[in-house]
Design goal:
The protein is an all-beta fold and about 90 residues long. It has a domain of about 55 residues. Helix content is about 0%, strand content about 30%. The chain has no helices and four strands. A four-stranded antiparallel beta sheet has the order 1-2-3-4, with no helix packed on it. The termini are far apart.
Length: about 90
């Protein structure tokens, strides 16, 4: 068991709070912890990340893996512009 801190604030704008949220997590049979959620700029991606920076237009989806000892093994953004928001009809 471990405790850690991970963040990726979206920033401030009029009436909007910083956004970082974990939507789901899972633990595999080896004890690795997987997190998914939404993050803005500043999320700590790792070397070789599929997407190393947010695409813009709002928070992006992220995926992160921690070892059983709590070390960040892999983290990446996984979204394109506006991919994390449902578009509204005009």
């Amino acid at each position: 068991m471990f405790s850690t801190y991970i963040d990726g604030a979206f920033g401030f704008s009029a009436g909007v709070s910083p956004l970082f949220s974990v939507g789901s997590f899972d633990i595999d049979s080896a004890g690795d912890v997987f997190l998914t959620g939404q993050a803005g700029s500043g999320f700590p991606v790792t070397a070789g990340a599929t997407q190393s920076c947010p695409a813009g237009g709002g928070p992006d989806i992220f995926v992160a893996e921690f070892t059983p000892q709590g070390k960040l093994a892999a983290a990446t953004y996984l979204a394109g512009p506006d991919a994390t928001r449902r578009k509204r009809s005009p």
